[in-house]
Amino acid sequence: MLITADIAKVRRIIQQARLKGKKVGFVPTMGALHQGHLSLVKASNRQSDFTVVSIFVNPLQFGPKEDLKKYPRRFKPDRKLLKKEKVDLLFYPSAKDLYPKDFSISVSEGQLSKFLCGISRPGHFKGVCTVVTKLFNIIQPDQAYFGQKDCQQARIIRRLVRDLNFPLEIKVLPTVRESDGLALSSRNQYLNPKQRKDARVIYQALRLAKKDIQNGQRNPARIIKAMRQRLSSVKSLKIDYLEIANAESLNKLKTIKGKVLITLAVYLAKVRLIDNIILNVD
Ligand code: PAF
Questions:
Q1: For 90-102, what is each residue's pLDDT tens digit?
Q2: In this predicted model, what pLDDT tens digit does every residue of 36-76 receive, in sequence order?
């Protein structure tokens, strides 16, 4: 596995692979890798001839009061995991490599970012769109892989690719969960044992919604009420948002129909966790 922070070198290596007719798959990450990331890497390895992974904790997508400083950085174990997966190239830039001092251009999405996480994390998706644009320009992959857990991010990146005509395909893979349903996230490691146990309630609430819908409930307000009730069994949990929306437009639904996104963000003490499910309803 080649490891570099040098943008010119990355371009050269990838160009060589492309000249050999190789299809390039790309998995952008912020490191602290878990099985969710590795499922993206494995998919890229299956579907591409040359897999590039980036590890970069992007300061632009963290708000001033967020966890940029304490965000887990685990380069050595990450490198080991990626080597084991036989990743071809690891791009590991620093903020200096990506953002010159007088960096002054950014990319913002003006519609889908106005909902959900965009409300409680202003500027977050602008940071994501900017870094992803830069990474796509550097790597120029044929396909790039994202997780369904960050459903709004995946939706916005598809829009970015469509609206800015990036010649690549976005692949969104299912959320990987612990055996008790908790979605894997690099932030799970902030949870103490009690909070980790409490965090199970998040997926329980999503499953409850699914069951209600399967039983014929079509009123989003009723489903949300039942979910809130289930979540309230954990006293220390604070709901940031809990919404039922159209999975494409992210607009709130008045009735359950079509491709339905049930999504939430909660705080367990200071740890912010997100999760969602998507259902196809006739
Ligand atoms: O999902 C993430 O880890 C990040 O938002 C991404 C896409 C790597 C951009 O920094």
A1: 999 999 999 999 9
A2: 999 999 999 999 999 999 999 999 999 999 999 999 999 99
Q: Which domains does the chain carry?
A: 2-173 (3.40.50.620), 186-281 (3.30.1300.10)
- Determine the Cα–Cα distance for residues 48 and 197; give it in Å rounded to an integer: 38
Q: Rounded to whole angstroms, how far apart are CA atoms 241 and 201?
A: 15
Nearest residue (by CA) to ligand 1, atom 5, is 128
Task: Work out which ligand 1 atom sits closest to the CA atom of 128.
Answer: 9
| Contacts (Cβ under 8 Å, ≥6 apart) of 8 | none
DSSP string, 15-59: HHHHHTTPPEEEEEE-SS--HHHHHHHHHHHHH-SEEEEEE---G
Strands lying side by side in the sheet with 237-246: 237-246, 258-268, 271-281
Q: Which of 26, 37, 61 to mutate to test the pocket of ligand 1 (most atoms within 8 A of CB)?
A: 61
The answer to whether the CB of 28 is under 6 A from ligand 1 is: yes
* Nearest alpha carbon to residue 243 among 264, 229, 266, 218: 264
- pLDDT averaged per 10 residues in sequence order, the chain, 282 residues: 98 98 98 98 98 98 96 98 98 98 98 98 98 98 98 98 98 98 97 98 98 98 98 98 98 98 96 98 96
The tokens describing 9, both together, are 């070198």
Catalytic positions:
37
From the CA of 152, how far away is ligand 1's center (Å)? 12
Mutational pocket test of ligand 1: of 29, 37, 135, the residue with most ligand atoms within 8 Å of the beta carbon: 29
State pTM to two decimals.
Answer: 0.97
Distance of CA 132 to the CA centre of its chain: 12
